[in-house]
Design goal:
Order of helices and strands of chain A: EHEHHHHHHHHEEH
Enzyme class (chains A, B): isomerase
Oligomer: homodimer
Shape of chain A: globular
Strand order of the largest sheet of chain A: 2-1-3-4
Number of helices of chain A: 10
Keywords (chains A, B): Isomerase
GO molecular function (chains A, B): 2-hydroxychromene-2-carboxylate isomerase activity; glutathione peroxidase activity; glutathione transferase activity
Active site (chains A, B): 13
CATH class of chain A: Alpha Beta
Catalytic activity (chains A, B): 2-hydroxychromene-2-carboxylate = (3E)-4-(2-hydroxyphenyl)-2-oxobut-3-enoate
CATH architecture of chain A: 3-Layer(aba) Sandwich
Largest sheet of chain A: 4 strands, mixed
Strand content of chain A: 5-15%
Low-confidence stretches of chain A: none
Number of domains of chain A: 1
Distance between the termini of chain A: 12 Å
Structural class of chain A: alpha+beta
């Protein structure tokens, strides 16, 4: 068996959205299992001294990123819709509740579908994914129980998300999407193939 | 004819080194002309408030970058040698003379070979490419005239390099390697295929 590939993401990340759209297909084609690991980039970016997305901190990079994501989404056949990057309600969105819900959802069979639907709602339909009602509707649509948002906000589950962010830091993760195979780190949606090939090579060793 | 692809680089950039190693082959396979455009990242990074490489400013990104470049060089079959990133003489190197020499060399048929040899000397042999003697030896080896370094430091040529950096800024370039097809910008060694495909698609329009 190839090693599993861990996919670390924050729902606010545009490139994580692209990764979510095509990771499973690429992994399944190689017989590789993926494990989806929602995190929050806020505490990680704080290590760099940033209090928001680097695409807001560095406007030139931001301008490029929107165009690049638009092009890559078109390649994947996804109807990406550019948010208003000057409106902090549109980008980066607050993702803590979505991440907490995803953490629980991913314990069961509908978790990845929930995550994809959250990303698509955010970056294709322009929905506000910090809104509990929006998230609960997505959860129901993905086949998840109605009380997911309530379970997500228990002290235990909050602590679980914090622990997952700490685990990401310990792996040296500094952005999203990131992929890990054991302790080997790959950063960026454009490293999916590198990560999957690494997982296959590890198997051979 | 497909549109040409412009390749913007600073000799201090590790990912530009990787791009220089395989861009020509990828472009030639698609019948695309490349135009190599040496620049200096210093004045561009200054726009972000950085006085050195972002891989020095952000150590977590730096640590990842060295590992990532090592892996990608191995894929390309290149004998990358990691410099001492804590020694400012080793990384990032001072590249102004190399860029000025490349600017002239690229007017003729040996320019790209000169550039590749500079990158390989720096990132595979650990040479100091700020040293005029090292650069002159590389130039001779690439078939260029012995007085290239002298010609490179004329006021006219210095102004030419400054103008090229300004042109890069006007295109929205914020790092290297960057690739442009007309005004369409692609950033990163991992966007070579995207840029080449764009050049081919432009032809069809």
């Amino acid at each position: 068996m190839p090693k599993p590939v861990d996919f670390w993401f924050d729902f606010a990340s545009t490139y994580a959205y692209l990764a979510a759209a095509h990771l499973e297909e690429a992994a399944a084609a190689r017989g590789i299992e993926t494990r989806w690991r929602p995190i929050l980039l806020g505490p990680i970016f704080a290590l760099h001294g940033w209090d928001t997305s680097p695409f807001v901190v560095y406007p030139l990079k931001g301008r490029y990123m929107w165009r690049d994501v638009e092009r890559r989404a078109a390649k994947l056949g996804r109807p990406f819709r550019r948010p208003d990057a000057n409106d902090p309600r549109e980008f980066p969105q607050h993702t803590v509740l979505a991440a907490r819900m995803a953490l629980i959802a991913l314990d069961g069979p509908y978790g990845k579908e929930f995550c994809r639907r959250v990303f698509f709602a955010e970056f294709e339909e322009g929905r506000d994914i910090s809104d509990p009602a929006v998230l609960s509707a997505i959860a129901r649509g993905a086949g998840l129980p109605a009380d997911l948002a309530d379970k997500a906000t228990t002290p235990d589950n909050k602590a679980r998300l914090r622990a997952q962010v700490e685990a990401a830091k310990e792996l040296g993760i500094f952005g999203a999407p990131s992929f890990t195979v054991g302790e080997e780190l790959f950063w960026g949606e454009d490293r999916i193939d590198d990560a999957l090939e690494w997982a296959l090579d590890e198997q051979a060793c």
